[in-house]
Amino acid sequence: METQDSMKEFNRLYRATIRRIDEVDVPAMKFLMVDGSCNGSNFDEFRLGIEGLFALSHAMKAAIARIHIGFEYTVMPLECLWWVRGTGEYTPDNRDEWRWILMVVQPNYVTSALAREALSTMDREKFLPGISKVRYGVFTEGLSVQTLHNGPRAEKWTTINRLRAFIEKKGYQVRGRHHEIYISDPRTLSPEKMKMIIRLPIRFPEHDERARQ
Fold first, then answer.
1. What is the rounded CA–CA span in Å between residue 109 and residue 45?
2. Measuring CA to CA, which residue among 103, 130, 122, 105 is closest to residue 62?
3. Rounded distance, CA 127 to CA 147, Å?
4. Whole-angstrom Cα distance, residue 119 to residue 121?
5. Buried b / exposed e across 140-172, counting CB within 10 Å, b at 16+?
6. Domains of the chain
7. Is the Cα torsion angle 167, 30, 84, 185 positive or negative in sign?
8. What residues does 30 pair with on adjacent strands?
9. pLDDT at site 211
10. pLDDT tens digit sequence for 156-192
11. Which listed residue, 16, 36, 84, 85, has the most CB atoms within 10 A of its CB?
C-alpha cells in the first residue's frame, strides 16, 4: 500500500521547537486556499473558511483514494498567511487592516482539475458557505526562518519579535507575508493552549554577494 505522510516528507518544514530558530528553504507546494480579511473583530469569514478548507481536503482525500487505489495520506494542518494591505507591517495594533489566506497543503496527486471537480461535487451535495471560496494554488515561499510558539495566541508577538531579532542579527531582511502553521487544531483547542509554527520569509540584502549566487 502506497502512503504519503507529508509531515514526514517535509519534516523540517512542519517540525519546530521553542528552543531554537531554524532556517528552511520551502519549495513549491500545492494548496487549497481561502482568501479573506478580518474587518475588525469579525472572524466569521475566517471560521467559515476553515470549515470549507477541511471539508474539501477530506473530499480530495476520498477522491484520490478512488483514483489511486491503495494511496493514503494524512490531511495536513491548517496554515495561514497574514499581512496588511500596502506597505504596513502586520502588528496587533492594526487588526482592522489584517488580510489573510487560509491554506492546507495537498499531495502531489492533487491537480487544479481534480480540485474543481471535488469543489463542484461538494457544492451540490453539501451546503457549506465556506466551500465556494476555496481555490487551488501553488505557493513557493523559499528561504525562511521559523520557530515554535507554544502558549496563548495573544502572546505570539513575543515569538515574532524573537524571529525578527534573529533575522536582524544574521543580516537578513524580512520579505513576504507572516506565516503560521497550526500544529494544534484551532477549531477544537483553547486559544490559551495553541501550538503553532511561526515562519517569516527572508532575503539577503541587495548589496550582499550571497544574494546574487
1. 29
2. 122
3. 37
4. 5
5. ebeebbbbbbbbebeebeebbeebeebbeeeeb
6. 3-205 (3.20.80.10)
7. negative
8. 138
9. 47
10. 999 999 999 999 999 999 999 999 999 988 777 676 7
11. 16
78 phi and psi angles, rounded to 5 deg: -70, 140
Look over the chain and give the mean of its residue pLDDT values, rounded to a whole number: 84
pTM for the model: 0.86
Model confidence band, residue 209 (pLDDT cutoffs 50, 70, 90): very low
The single-letter code of the amino acid at 59 is A
